[in-house]
Amino acid sequence: MKLVGISGAIIGTKTKIVVDKVLEEVKRNHPEVETELLDMKDYNVQFCDGRDPSAYTDDTRKVIDIVESADFLLIGTPIYQASMSGVLKNLFDLVPITAFQQKVVGFIATGGTYQHYLVVENQLKPIAGFFRSFVAPSYVYVHDDHFNDLKELRDPDVLERIEKLAHELVFMQTRLKSE
């Protein structure tokens, strides 16, 4: 059982920190789950131009393959201009629908205002519906104030939500795929 965590940012570190924290929580409580971080910052991905996903090469092909290899996914994005990152949108455009179809998906979002959590409800969840994914009921939104000066998460409520999301992802994956 493989969980891929996606950090959909090419600048900054906060989204990656939160995605990593959920992956660590999963690994701590469920060592049988293989985890992999897909940090979009580490790849030079082409813009989607409508080609069949199998026609892409190099880093773009690697990223598509990593997403397709997941049994379930954790998707993280910073919120820019009240929307997901362009990097994440491009990834959604690149991968075939089957990469997310019938897979459990959880969401992480980071942002500078407290209202940006609505992006998860109004954009990310509908996209997951289009892909026919099973969406974890909880998600984690982290505001800049939840980090200390060393970019560490210290807010107990956020840490509790991270733990809950990690549990839900594994619970849903285990139950839905045990049939």
Automatic annotation (TrEMBL):
Record bears the keyword GTP-binding: no
Xref: SUPFAM superfamilies: Flavoproteins
Molecular-function GO term, any one: oxidoreductase activity
Domain NADPH-dependent FMN reductase-like: 1-145
Swiss-Prot/TrEMBL keywords: Flavoprotein, FMN, Oxidoreductase
Short name of any one Pfam family annotated for the protein: FMN_red
Entry annotated with the keyword Disulfide bond: no
UniProt name for this protein: FMN reductase
Protein species of origin: Paenibacillus pini JCM 16418
